[in-house]
Amino acid sequence: MMPVILELNKRKYELSYNADVSFLQKKIDLAEKEHRRPYEDFSDPEMLQYYLYRQTHLDKRNDRTERTVREYERELSLFIKQLLTYGAEIDVDLDYVVEGSLFKSLAPRHIRRYQEWLAGKSPYVLKKGSYSPATLSRKTTIIKSFLHFLYKTEYIEKPLHHALLTATVRKDDRPDRDLGPQEVVALLDYFKSIQHPIVFGIIHVLTVTGIRNEEFCTLKVSSLKYDSITQQYYLDVLGKGNKRRRIPIKEKTYNNIKQFRAARGLQDLSEAERESPLFSTNTGRPYTPSYLTQYLTQQIEKSGLSFLKHRNNKIGPHTFRHAFAIISRLSKIDIYEIQRSLGHERIETTTIYLEKVFEKEQHAIQSWNSDMLADYI
To answer: Domains, the chain, ranges and CATH?
Structure first.
């Protein structure tokens, strides 16, 4: 490994986990008072910490969620670690260190070489094969956002973010998460037949609500409320961007929630503590998104249902969010209503969920005059 990289490796690139970044804000305020550049006294780790934890909205609920921050932190920490550990392989040919900073020392060629190495020669790729297009796109987006922040704040002088090639996900590269009503019914029938109210309840709630994995995991007893005007239960869901949605719950869904809780040995909804989890594991703890994905995927795979053999991707919690969109569209519901129900900020996201449905709906054969081939169509 080159001496310059070795020198940088001796420096600690760790966060202090002071999530309110009050100390860093005081440094910025002092620099402003003394008519200096705001971030000239910052170190690389401080810039990373400020980028992750700074407040960008007056209402903190509109800032990044804790889960998003953790994802950004994980990806950016890995980015830094890989540059330091595999500098020779990546050909990070630094002649000297600028002000003791890795970020200030990098040039566009290093970022371009890193991206090429990440996609083709990194340890993960050599061991497990290529990253999926979606994973590369996510990594690129996060790194590009951080590098752009460093340039915009004038912490670095070179627009390193321009060196990253676009890593978009083509339609054909997206995982197949489509699931239609017949397949959902087949799953519900199976878990009902083997008397498994846990998996049955999870699938049922995910399908009829369209909620996200994380939204399901964070539901509390207090999230299930009764509307005296409509005389119907609903879920008060806190979604992305800390935006709330009220999702109606029909009687059968409400009963399945009660059956789930009874099977887990949880208190009746009328007696349970309001802040306790609405759904829990067998230990009484709330599900985590990763555990729910693992558990549900394994249980569905074990079912051995015939339609699973023809799928390229396993069925997890997010698949039932797609099922909600597809079933809604097949029920002739307007796409904007589906968008609002799912909590999508952009209609383009909802369109992605429904691409294959639209493709079939808009196929020329759907408008053929049936008289032309009356006996055959």
So the answer is: 3-173 (no CATH), 181-361 (1.10.443.10)
